[in-house]
Every structure is written in C-alpha cells, then in structure tokens.
Design a protein that fits this description.
The protein is mainly α. It has one domain: Up-down Bundle (3 helical TM bundles of succinate and fumarate reductases), CATH 1.20.1300. The longest helix is centred in the N-terminal third of the chain and has 32 residues.
C-alpha cells in the first residue's frame, strides 16, 4: 500500500475546548436526563390514577431533600435543553454564527436556564 497524501482528520489536540463545545455535550446529557425525568412524571401520573395510598408513596419519595434535588435538576435540564434547542433553531436559520454571537447565545443558554429554573422554583414550588 502506498502512503496517502490526503489530510488527516483533525485531532483533539488541534481544537481548543470552548463553551459552545461544552454546551453541545451538556445538551446531549440533559436530553438523557429529560428522558429519565419523564419516567418520574409518568410514575407520578400512574400513582395519581392508582389512588391516594400509592400517590402518598410518590410524595414521600419525591418530597424529601434528595427527591427535591432530583426535581430541581430535572427542571434545570428542561430549561437548559429548551434554550439549547432555541440556539440550534437560530443556527438553522443561518443566524448567530459570528464568534461573539456564538458566545452570547451560549451564555444566554447557561444563564437563562439557571434564571428560569430559579424563577419556577421560587414562584411555583417554594411559595
């Protein structure tokens, strides 16, 4: 076999890790988290249909500090994934590709997900 003169695929050492790359990975992770959180939502709905005794069990599991932490994480994953989807929709419209625009959209995704989560928990859960 002769040596190929084609360029090699870019290696990880060439790329500089960026916020956009981190959010791409996080978008996939939150997608999996949403799938698992939807199972919790289905469990709650099934318990509500099964009767008060089973629903009380769900409330005891999700009402303690660990269950609340899981629900808080699910809420954050929901908003983070939604805003990431809007960012990708913006890119599908061929907008926001300049470096400063990518950074602004990425920070909007991060900060917006946290702010929306806090607002929902402050006004809907803790009030």
């Amino acid at each position: 076999m002769t040596e190929s003169k084609r360029p090699l695929s870019p290696h990880l050492e060439i790329y500089r890790f960026s916020l956009t790359m981190a959010l791409s990975i996080l978008h996939r992770i939150t997608g999996v988290a949403l799938y698992l959180g939807t199972l919790l939502l289905a469990w709650w709905l099934i318990a509500a249909a099964a009767g008060p005794a089973y629903l009380d069990l769900v409330y005891r599991v999700l009402g303690n500090w660990f269950g609340q932490l899981v629900l808080l994480g699910f809420t954050w994953a929901l908003f983070h994934h939604m805003l990431g989807g809007l960012k990708h929709f913006t890119w599908d419209l061929v907008r926001g590709f300049a470096p400063e625009q990518r950074r602004a959209l990425s920070w909007f995704n991060v900060i917006g997900g946290l702010v929306l989560t806090l607002l929902v928990w402050i006004f809907m859960v803790w009030s």
